[in-house]
Design goal:
Oligomer: single chain
Strand order of the largest sheet: 1-2-3-4-5
Largest sheet: 5 strands, mixed
Strand content: 15-25%
Low-confidence stretches: 1-9
Structural class: alpha/beta
Radius of gyration: 16 Å
Order of helices and strands: HEHEHEEHE
Helix content: 25-40%
Number of domains: 1
CATH class: Alpha Beta
């Protein structure tokens, strides 16, 4: 089941999530794919809106505030779920990396590891390798 959430005025956000919850419950949805907007809304409105049948949460489509990432990761762990932070190009449809749920606690903020067969490196403007450092931002 794929669900698309449209941006709505804030007074309609709760009604949208109530419908989402009903749709997921009736379909017994198990996966919640979201972009930063969706996870920011869940953090604000309460992740309890997502039915217990949903166990896999994936985030792509841009950087999500690390505090919200940590909140969602902790919440999914409490409900025996898994949260995957993905990085890619054009909304992660050609996904390049995944930060596994099990690696989140020690690598929060990372884009994760390259998918099988892939290789990423950090280089300067001339192509010379740079060391991986915490809080270094990649610019593509």
């Amino acid at each position: 089941m794929h669900v698309i959430l449209n941006a709505r005025p804030s007074n309609e956000a709760s009604a949208s999530f109530a419908k989402l919850e009903a749709d997921y419950r009736s379909a017994k949805g198990s996966h919640f794919p979201g972009v930063p907007f969706h996870y920011a809304a869940l953090a604000r409105l309460g992740a309890g809106l997502i039915p217990d049948s949903v166990k896999v949460f994936t985030q792509a489509g841009g950087a999500l505030d690390p505090r919200i990432q940590a909140r969602i990761h902790d919440w999914t762990s409490e409900r025996d779920g898994r949260f995957f932070v993905m990085y890619g190009q054009t909304e992660a449809s050609p996904r390049m990396t995944t930060l596994q749920h099990s690696d989140f606690s020690r690598k929060a903020g990372s884009v994760g590891v390259a998918l099988a067969g892939g290789r990423l490196s950090i280089v300067d403007e001339m192509g010379a390798p740079l060391p991986a450092e915490p809080n270094r931002r990649a610019v593509c």
